[in-house]
Design the sequence.
DNA sequence: TGTCAACACGAAAACGTTTTCGCAAATAAA
DNA sequence: TTTATTTGCGAAAACGTTTTCGTGTTGACA
């Protein structure tokens, strides 16, 4: 058991002052070569490392980033987190993660907890409940305190800060046009409640594409599934009662569930019904047939978010940078679940 | 922009000393009711919250836990992390995550970074390279410094600390016996390089089961796949050249890959070949047929690891607790990929 | 020999807390 | 009225750094 050594310990052992030790280790030329060598050797031998907490207190910066995500078991958030962690680590930052579990209360508690000095800035994706209640005072207060925030994916226009989003509208439109160009007419959308900004955008993209191609919009071809519930029966009913030859799903799970049920109902994918999902996760890559899907480039998104945040935190110029919204271009990955 | 308020600010505004403010807010009865009320009201109005960093420095504890995992995109680690975060948060701890990317160098760097005061203890699963090189001095040094460590899943007997593991051997044995009891004779194992302790245990479980039932062990029925590489051709070749009626895979990806290739080769799952995998992730739940699999209860594992760590960190008794190894009992979840 | 600069180092403040101890004033007891 | 006790509060140290400023010693130069 050899506990951590401090500047004071070194100073005492070598009968010099703490200031001298500190300067010597920073190679200050205020200190003679002899003394420096002696101190450095001692420090090295005892494996001295400055205490991060003391540094944080002194410098008023922790080199920690707080990340709040609704759920980590979802592939998309996991990859975004990966990107954040990667970029942050390269830049010497650590990442403290809290999971809001789609609850605004947890989001608030976690953010307040971390905001009291533990982190220098936040990266977050809004919880479902936060979006539903449209309640952002916790974010506003933190921004007011001068704590920078970067929102990604689930964002809101109510808050002025840096953001990273997907071109959801355009890519949904592209997906639907892919259906149209391969001959589909009765195109369905399987989506979540509309308080999710991303689902809304994808819905608009879907509608826009139909309009642009003069296809009549049938409201009953839009299936809204409750969030995180058992919904096999809803899906089954939907495909039994509607004539559909293509379906766009706003996430991977919905897509796989649809495919599985469609196949059980005796239809062929993609010949009878084509499917496109969102999120290029393992489900999409290993299903039979493999799923045509929208790659959201989560890792890139995470890196960008981290870069935006760190740039702002380390900003030194006199003029404050205006807030940016970066758009990540999704890619449609064509595989076996659609006709190509 | 209203920056964070400190004890000093309150003291100045109210013309009392910092000590008085501190005591008043802690409801000390050294302070008169009048003064306390005044101070509390002021603090509440300005939303005073003590600075975590200052507290950490004072108390010599950060209430942060460092978690080092080889990879977060893998479902198992994600769920373990989930469990850690959940339990830690309940107990008022935050979680700093670093991803070692299966590299010992990153593992070392990250741990040293965090060990300089940022965290009170570690929870980690060893990187592949660390297990391969059998190099644990970084862990030993941290333990020497009095920093508690809990290892989970990928552990080593070289290090004395608290651990949480799966009963890999027994559950592998149970899986193989399930094959045997349903009539399989030629049982294959698809595994990873043997420096992974978990793969080794599962291999022993496999071998034990065969021995116990007087089934001859055929070394060529054991397929060792390189870590994280494209290995479809190896798998194809394996099933073309060997007569197999059941296969145990040490992870979910291998199991899905095998199932996909087996089906492509024209075999029926489970009638021609049964499959059991490890990790009850979404792949297993959404494949066709659904995969019989070993549920590792990652979330529980994470909770247990966090509990072990926090108990040790908050340990106050005079006698030091001996190190514990908790064993999580895996569960065989029987689904369509095996005969039941 | 006296003056000045350069050199090498130390004292102290600061970051924001908590906590021990001391001390004056107010009250109670003698 | 004197003494003892309580009450209410402040000063200061401590946690581990960094950094500014001050200061004693040395050597060079006039």
Sequence:
């Amino acid at each position: 058991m050899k506990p951590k050594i401090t500047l004071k310990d070194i100073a005492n052992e070598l009968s010099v002052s703490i200031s001298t030790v500190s300067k010597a280790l920073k190679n200050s030329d205020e200190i003679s070569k002899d003394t420096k060598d002696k101190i450095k050797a001692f420090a090295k031998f005892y494996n001295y490392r400055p205490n991060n907490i003391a540094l944080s207190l002194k410098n008023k910066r922790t080199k920690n980033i707080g990340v709040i995500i609704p759920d980590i078991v979802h592939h998309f958030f996991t990859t975004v987190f990966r990107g954040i962690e990667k970029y942050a680590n390269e830049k010497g930052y650590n990442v403290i993660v809290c999971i809001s579990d789609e609850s605004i209360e947890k989001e608030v508690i976690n953010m307040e907890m971390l905001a009291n000095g533990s982190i220098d800035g936040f990266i977050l994706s809004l919880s479902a409940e936060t979006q539903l209640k449209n309640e952002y005072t916790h974010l506003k207060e933190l921004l007011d305190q001068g704590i920078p925030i970067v929102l990604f994916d689930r964002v809101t226009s109510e808050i002025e800060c840096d953001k990273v989003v997907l071109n959801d509208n355009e890519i949904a439109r592209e997906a639907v046009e892919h259906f149209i160009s391969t001959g589909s007419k009765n195109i369905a959308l399987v989506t979540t409640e509309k308080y999710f900004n991303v689902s809304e955008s994808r819905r608009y993209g879907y509608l826009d594409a139909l309009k642009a191609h003069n296809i009549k919009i049938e409201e009953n071809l839009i299936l809204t599934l409750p969030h995180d519930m058992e919904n096999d029966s809803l899906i089954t009913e939907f495909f039994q009662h509607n004539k559909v030859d293509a379906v766009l799903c706003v996430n991977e799970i919905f897509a796989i569930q649809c495919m599985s049920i469609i196949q059980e109902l005796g239809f062929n994918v993609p010949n009878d019904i084509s499917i496109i999902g969102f999120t290029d996760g393992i489900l999409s890559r290993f299903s039979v047939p493999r799923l045509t899907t929208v790659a959201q480039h989560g890792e890139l998104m995470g890196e960008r978010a981290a870069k935006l945040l760190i740039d702002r935190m380390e900003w030194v110029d006199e003029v404050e940078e205006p807030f940016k919204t970066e758009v990540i271009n999704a890619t449609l990955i064509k595989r076996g679940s659609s006709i190509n």
In short: Residues 16-20, 23, 30-32, 35, 54, 56-60, 117 of chain A lie near DNA strand C (CB under 10 Å from a C1'). The radius of gyration of chain A is 26 Å. The first strand of chain A starts at residue 64 and ends at 69.
